[in-house]
């Protein structure tokens, strides 16, 4: 059997491993032993494929070392979907999680730049020490272009499978297409990784791919699909306003929309320098010609510059209307470390008595509230897809719908806690939340969301499209 053919059959084995674990997790999500077992199998398979394919140089020990480095370099690109699972093992405590969430934009930009530098250094090392490339610059450009090409092809494959799922909305077909996604991602990734390392693009043989497709379709028919779809979600009014009918986070908007029958109105509060809570979303407020952090400005100075509603007044009005709130405590890098304690002392009794909820990216603040008023339900807000949130002690999760991945939802379900998503303003966002089975959606278009009841069983295609988060 030729070396390339052996590689293709080994690729099929790795694809089937990915598919098998995905099917297993649908029934019994496990991000402990099973994840490590999957990692060991796929890691060993990659090393074997690398050596059998003679992708490196030197003896087997040297090639094994080269394979380990290559595996580590390509892992963040979604190799075998492992990155989505392994994020659960990041040893982050609640304070570290909060810090990463607050500085997420700077963090993502920094990590992106660092990863590109790592890729370039890897390609330089590979060209000089392994492949002995004649033209270093050409080899590096070819490698970076090939990586970009891999990501584009993965998106095209997922989009095409999503289109098939849209045209063939049967449960077994969706199930099979989900498995086919995992299989084809393995073939695509291995094909492009080999092209990066060898400088040549060799397409996989048709027979191993065909066998894999038959296995995936059979799995779709034989393995019952698990649906968590939910067309009876709670619709939550974002910042108290519906279709911009009033100023967000204001008593005016609460009076206008607080008696329309919505289970919750979600709103934002900030703590001033002198420990007063005002209704505000943005971290900064304009005072004169300067933008000042609300955390660093006393209430008297803020009131001289602009009108603000006090949270105590807002809470009074909500209680008069018998309107439950989801109160978001905003946080910055300069937030008072005892903000949760301040909130609990000022409002804990009333929040607990009237069954309001509290959520925040500030996990330590939630723990402080829980310590004073354990009956108050607190939730973690995050937009960092894949970090290990299921280990934290909260009552619910509020997740950004854009970064909501299939693996992330499975992870949260292991904790047995409700999921709310934000901000679901488009039909696609609302549909995605319903198909993925989250318990509530926070939206600026509450009146539309309340009436929007799509046929969920015909829209499983969105789960196929959403696989992009798990493999790319």
Fraction in beta strands: 5-15%
Helical/strand content category: alpha/beta
Helix content estimate: 55-70%
Mean pLDDT: 91
Notable traits:
single chain; 472 residues; alpha/beta; 8-stranded parallel beta barrel; 19 helices; globular
SSE topology:
Blueprint: H1 3-27, H2 33-52, H3 60-74, H4 82-86, H5 94-102, H6 104-130, H7 136-167, H8 171-198, H9 206-222, E1 234-238, H10 251-257, E2 264-271, E3 277-279, E4 284-287, E5 290-293, H11 299-305, H12 311-321, E6 325-329, H13 339-353, E7 357-360, H14 363-372, E8 378-382, E9 396-400, H15 406-413, E10 419-422, H16 427-436, E11 440-443, H17 446-451, H18 461-465, H19 468-471
Parallel strand pairs: 1-2, 1-11, 2-6, 6-7, 7-8, 8-9, 9-10, 10-11
Antiparallel strand pairs: 2-3, 4-5
Helix pairs in contact: 1-2, 1-8, 1-9, 2-3, 6-7, 7-8, 8-9, 13-14
What does this structure look like?
The chain is α/β, with parallel strands linked by helices and 472 residues long. It has 19 helices and 11 strands. The strands form 2 sheets. The chain has an 8-stranded parallel β-barrel. A two-stranded antiparallel sheet has the order 4-5. The longest helix has 32 residues. It is globular, with a radius of gyration of 25 Å. The model has no long low-confidence stretch (mean pLDDT 91).
How do you describe this structure in short?
With 472 residues, the chain is an alpha/beta fold. The protein contains 19 helices and eleven strands. Helix content is 55%, strand content 11%.
């Amino acid at each position: 059997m030729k070396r390339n053919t052996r590689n293709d059959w080994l690729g099929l084995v790795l694809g089937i491993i990915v598919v098998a674990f995905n099917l297993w997790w649908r029934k019994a999500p496990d991000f402990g032993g099973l994840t490590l077992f999957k990692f060991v199998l796929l890691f060993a398979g990659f090393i074997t494929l690398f050596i059998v394919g003679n992708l490196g140089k030197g003896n087997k020990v040297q090639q094994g070392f080269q394979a380990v480095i290559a595996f580590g370099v390509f892992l963040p690109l979604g190799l075998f979907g492992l990155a989505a699972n392994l994020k659960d093992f990041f040893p982050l405590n609640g304070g570290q999680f909060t810090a990463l969430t607050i500085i997420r934009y700077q963090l993502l930009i920094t990590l992106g730049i660092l990863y590109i530098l790592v890729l370039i250094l890897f390609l330089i090392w590979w060209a000089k020490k392994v492949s002995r490339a004649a033209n270093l610059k050409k080899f590096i450009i070819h490698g970076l272009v090939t990586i970009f090409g891999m990501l584009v092809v993965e998106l095209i494959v997922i989009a095409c499978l999503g289109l098939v799922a849209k045209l063939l909305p049967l449960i077994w077909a969706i199930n099979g297409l989900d498995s086919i996604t995992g299989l084809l991602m393995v073939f695509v990734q291995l094909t492009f990784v080999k092209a990066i390392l060898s400088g040549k693009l060799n397409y996989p043989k048709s027979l191993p791919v065909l066998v894999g497709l038959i296995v995936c379709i059979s799995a779709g028919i034989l393995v019952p699909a698990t649906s968590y779809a939910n067309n009876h979600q709670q619709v939550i009014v974002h910042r108290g306003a519906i279709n911009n009918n009033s100023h967000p986070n204001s008593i005016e908007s609460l009076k206008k929309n607080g008696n329309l029958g919505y289970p919750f109105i979600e709103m934002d509060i900030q703590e001033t320098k002198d420990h007063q809570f005002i209704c505000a979303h943005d971290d900064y407020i304009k005072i004169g010609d300067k933008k000042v952090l609300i955390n660093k400005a006393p209430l008297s100075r803020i009131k001289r510059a602009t009108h603000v509603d006090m949270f105590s007044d807002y809470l009074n009005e909500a209680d008069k209307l018998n309107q439950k709130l989801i109160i978001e405590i905003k946080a910055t890098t300069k937030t008072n470390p005892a903000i949760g304690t301040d909130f609990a002392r000022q409002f804990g009794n009333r929040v607990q008595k009237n069954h309001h909820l509290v959520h925040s990216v500030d996990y330590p603040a939630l723990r402080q509230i829980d310590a004073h008023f354990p009956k108050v339900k607190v939730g973690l807000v995050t937009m960092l897809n894949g970090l290990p949130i299921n280990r934290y002690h909260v009552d619910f999760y509020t997740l950004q719908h854009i970064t909501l991945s299939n693996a992330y939802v499975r992870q949260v379900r292991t904790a047995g806690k409700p999921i709310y998503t934000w901000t679901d303003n488009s039909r696609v966002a609302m549909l995605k939340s319903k198909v993925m089975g989250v318990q509530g959606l926070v939206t600026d278009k509450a009146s539309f969301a309340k009436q929007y009841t799509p046929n969920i069983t015909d829209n499983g295609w969105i789960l196929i499209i959403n696989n992009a988060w798990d493999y790319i």
